[in-house]
Amino acid sequence: MDYAIFLVAMAALIYGADFIIKESERIALHFNISHFVIGATLVAFGTSLPEMAASMMAAGQGKSDMAVANVLGSVIFNITLVLGLVFFIAKSMKPERDLFAQDSAWVVMPVVIFLIMIQDGVIGRVDGLIFLLIMVSYLIFLFTSSKEDLEGDIDESLTEKFNWGKTILLLSIGFIFTIGGANFVIDSGTNIARSLEVSEWIIGLFLISLGTSLPER
Hints:
Layout: H1 2-30, H2 35-60, H3 64-89, H4 99-102, H5 104-117, H6 125-145, H7 147-150, H8 156-161, H9 164-196, H10 200-212
C-alpha cells in the first residue's frame, strides 16, 4: 500500500509543480520577459519545488537525513542524468548568453560554501540564511547584468488568450498538489524505508530525489 501511495503522491507532486511552471511562464511571457530569465528564475524555481516541498516537509517532521539526502541526490541527478541526457540528445548547444563568463561563478560558489559549511557536521539557520542571500544576490545580478537578456519578443497570441482567473486557479491547484504530494511522499517513503530495513538517508538519496528530479527532465 505504501508503494502505491508513494507513486500517487509523487505524481501529484510532479504534476502540481508542472501546473505552477506553466502558469508562471504564461504570466512572465504576458509581461514580455525573456525566455532566458524565465528559465533561470520561474522554471528553475518551479522544477525545484518538488525537492523543496519534500525536504521542507521532512525537516518539519524531524527527518533531517531524508531532507538533506533528497537535496543532495537531486543535485547529483540534475548534473549527471539531466545534463547528460540533454548533451547526448543535442548535437550542439550555443546559448546566446555567455553562461560560462556570466553565470558559472554563481553555480560553483554555493557548492564550495556548502562543502565548507558541512565540515562541522551541522547545518543551521545561519547556513540557510547565507544560501538565501546568495539566491537573492543572483536574482539581482540577473536582472541588472544585461538589458538585452531581459528583453523578449511580445507574443500577441498569448496576450490575447491570457486569462487571470484560469491562471490563478491552476496555480492554486498546483500548490495544493505539490504540498499535499510532498506530505504523502515523506510519510510513505519513511514506511518503505522501514519495511526494507534501510535508512531514510538511502530512501531520500535515491528514491525520493530521483522522483523529485523528474520535472527537470
